[in-house]
Amino acid sequence: MGEYRKRKKKKRKVMPFIVSGAVxxxxxxxxxxxxxxxxxxxxxxxxxxxxxxPDSTTAPxxxxxxxxxxxxxxxxxxDGSEAFLTNMKSTLDAAGxxxxxxxxxxxxxxxxxxxxxxxxxxxxxxxxxxSHTKSHTPSVxxxxxxxxxxxxxxxxxxxxxxxxxxxxxxxxxxxxxxxxNFGTETDRIKKIAGKYYQNGLNALGSYNLAGSDALYLDxxxxxxxxxxxxxxxPIIDSCIAExxxxxxxxxxxxxxxFSSEYLEQTIKYLEDNNVKILTFxxxxxxxxxxx
Length: 291
Hints:
Elements: H1 2-35, H2 40-46, E1 50-52, E2 58-60, E3 72-79, H3 83-95, E4 100-103, H4 116-124, E5 128-131, H5 138-141, H6 150-166, E6 171-176, H7 186-193, E7 199-201, E8 220-221, H8 228-241, E9 245-250, H9 260-272, E10 276-277, H10 280-287
Helix pairs in contact: 3-9, 6-7, 8-9
């Protein structure tokens, strides 16, 4: 009986060591599994975000394909004439190019001008609708500018911008100045335009470089009677060399100066030289410093 008690005491002393050893072993196994598991947080941070495309497949969101330090061309057709649909759109569509259209908001839906629905359809198709003021009145924008009160410009700029916003046009932050040569009144008119718009386009000049005035950007008019090789080609070549932004002005209704063949020749030369043609809004996101 005494010997049995001694053996029992020895077993009691051994059992705690066995239990402790088992616990330590389980802890070590757990640590090994934890430290060697995939780090899901790191994986989530390193993987690209995805977007769902219309066909329900997923694709990584990519960086912009066009760096700011490259030449870009924008085509802006002035006035909102129905002639854009018959004289110009087919040439752009055939080349896979979209332009911006500067519209006179008081003229929308009147004889010879596109309707609001036609403009909305163009916007849905990738074209951009921007302002060409409310009335494009010569007495406000061309004749005796010094005698025009600020209030007249407030009406022209403000009401046109409001019409674009109210009717769902996303180019409402950009205005194309009628005639666009304001001389000594430039600063005053730009200041008023800046109350309503972030960007303003002139009707004169060549291409724009970094640091250009966003409220008075230069444009160059496409004129069919100009020799392409001696007139427009050197400007395009210089724009490419300087990574500039060339904004081309067209009047698709003006058969004296506009031709779809000249436009097609211009687009082909740009494509042959890998120059992207973007709408004003697309190009401004790359070329203009946002304030």
